[in-house]
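TASK: fixed-backbone design
INPUT:
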């Protein structure tokens, strides 16, 4: 009789403990699913041009005459590196809405982007494929032509990018991701020109103009996201 009573009490205690643990776990999962967190993402990037074109329009004063030049040419292919910084919110750690900035470029050209980015993780596990896309405004910082006779007076443009990849949750506060990327960049900058002549019969020229560049780029991006 006593042994039956003891067995019943032990069984009841174990069942109650299991129910409490299950309830806590379910509550934790529910809270995790509903959790909205702030995230910061540092993303080293590397890109190269696959196709691009430049359209040039310029007005030049030469020997008291004004000339208008219009031209179009293929852009030389270049490589770029940089770092993107994204700050925003993550819903259930699957839906990411971020503000985008950073710096990208090479020895000839550099720019600062300012825009937005959306990322969606398909799974909630440790490993998850994802897709992201974003875009915004870019500010030109340096001389694209690497020419001492040309002074950039203003530079601006736009970018759009998208990528697919896989992310790995390293800990509760950190995940790593790797993704191939496509980026489209539109540059529109104005410049002043003061320098030697195009031919040998005049003493010098001054002028101003604008260049519109359309660039298609492919690249690779790594992301360290902190929650």
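OUTPUT:
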């Amino acid at each position: 009789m006593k042994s039956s009573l003891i067995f019943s009490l032990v069984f009841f205690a174990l069942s109650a403990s299991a129910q409490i643990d299950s309830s806590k776990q379910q509550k934790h999962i529910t809270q995790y699913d509903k959790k909205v967190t702030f995230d910061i993402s540092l993303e080293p990037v590397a890109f190269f041009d696959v196709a691009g074109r430049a359209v040039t329009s310029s007005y030049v004063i030469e020997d008291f005459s004004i000339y208008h030049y219009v031209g179009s040419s293929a852009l030389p292919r270049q490589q770029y590196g940089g770092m993107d910084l994204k700050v925003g919110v993550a819903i259930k750690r699957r839906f990411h809405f971020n503000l985008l900035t950073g710096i990208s470029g090479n020895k000839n050209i550099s720019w600062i982007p300012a825009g937005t980015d959306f990322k969606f993780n398909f799974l909630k596990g440790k490993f998850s494929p994802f897709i992201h896309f974003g875009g915004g405004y870019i500010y030109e910082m340096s001389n694209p032509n690497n020419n001492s006779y040309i002074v950039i007076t203003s530079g601006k443009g736009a970018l759009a990018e998208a990528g697919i990849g896989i992310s790995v949750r390293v800990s509760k506060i950190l995940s790593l991701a790797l993704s191939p990327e496509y980026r489209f960049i539109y540059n529109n900058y104005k410049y002043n020109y003061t320098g030697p002549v195009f031919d040998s019969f005049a003493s010098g020229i001054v002028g101003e103009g604008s260049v519109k560049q359309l660039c298609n780029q492919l690249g690779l991006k790594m992301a360290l996201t902190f929650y």
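COMMENT: The chain is about 15% helix and 65% strand.
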